[in-house]
Design brief:
single chain; alpha/beta; six-stranded parallel β-sheet; four-stranded parallel β-sheet; 10 strands; globular; binds D-glutamic acid
Length: 271
């Protein structure tokens, strides 16, 4: 048994989709979450900038005695995973491979869409992973740069004409290509599940990056004998690099928990 916490990070709110899955799948584990809300969005930035930010995020999380880190960010997973794994001794899990494995298990036609940030699509990481796992697969990638700012501003609900118009514009080319499976390759996007499935219809299966990586982490902890104490309920602590208030309001809504006065601010430039 290992009762040390798991570190989880993202550019902002999106990684909470992974936190929600972790709390269902690994309820006994303590979590330390960092959202880099002062520097969100990450998705349009150069790899060097992302690496600098990701290293600082990991250094902050490493001030806790962690047993593993989940990169609950598609953008960091697609661009920095290998570097972070090489530089750190503890196990670090990203979202790309678990999500691709799930998508390939779900697709019937082999036509798989990937929506993600510009940096993730530009990296080609989802496409390369899908093709490595199944060379026959047809992959259609689409960057959706407006989704993250809209989610961070709470524009996630069906009936909101701004998010619905943007979603239609991004998703229609993928529907025309005939995809039957769509990877939500950015951890912010599951917050748009209702809007996205409203546009895509029931013929397209949605695969969410955060959830699949939580299952991957569970397997890793079991294989390395790192599971926590199953007789207790784990706790989560939240840290952000900008003001906690905005984060707490949206995060409370999303996690269905009262987070008021629970998130703490960190000066990430110190790390
Ligand atoms: N949620 C992150 C991702 O999965 C980052 C999005 C962003 O900050 O642009 O890609």
């Amino acid at each position: 048994m290992d009762t040390r916490p798991i570190g989880v990070f993202d550019s902002g709110l999106g990684g909470l989709t992974a936190v929600r899955s972790l709390r269902e799948i690994l309820p006994e584990e303590d979590l330390v979450y960092f959202g880099d809300t002062a520097r969100v969005p990450y998705g349009g930035r150069a790899r060097e900038t992302l690496l600098k930010y990701a290293r600082q995020d990991v250094r902050f999380l490493q001030t806790f005695d962690l047993k593993a880190i989940l990169i609950a960010c598609g953008t960091v997973s697609t661009t920095c995973l290998e570097a972070l794994q090489a530089e750190n001794d503890l196990p670090i899990v990203g979202v790309v491979e678990p999500t691709c494995r799930r998508a390939l298990a779900v697709t019937k036609t082999g036509k798989t869409g990937v929506i993600a940030t510009l940096a993730s699509i530009r990296s080609g990481a989802y496409e390369a992973c899908l093709r490595r796992l199944n060379p026959q697969v047809e992959v259609y990638g689409k960057p959706c740069p407006l989704f993250v700012p809209l989610v961070e501003n709470g524009r996630t609900r069906p009936g909101d004409t701004v998010i619905e118009t943007v979603a239609r514009e991004y998703l229609e080319p993928l529907l025309e290509a005939g995809v039957d499976t769509l990877i939500l390759g950015c951890t912010h996007y599951p917050l748009l599940t209702e809007v996205i499935s409203g546009v895509c219809g029931s013929g397209v299966a949605l695969v969410s990056a955060g959830e699949e990586s939580a299952f991957e982490l569970k397997r890793l902890l079991r294989d390395r004998d790192l599971r926590g104490d199953g007789s207790r309920q784990g706790e989560a602590s939240f840290f952000v690099s900008d003001t906690p208030e905005n984060f707490e309001d949206l995060a409370s809504l999303f996690l269905q928990e009262d987070l008021h006065h629970m998130a703490r601010r960190v000066d990430i430039d110190q790390y």
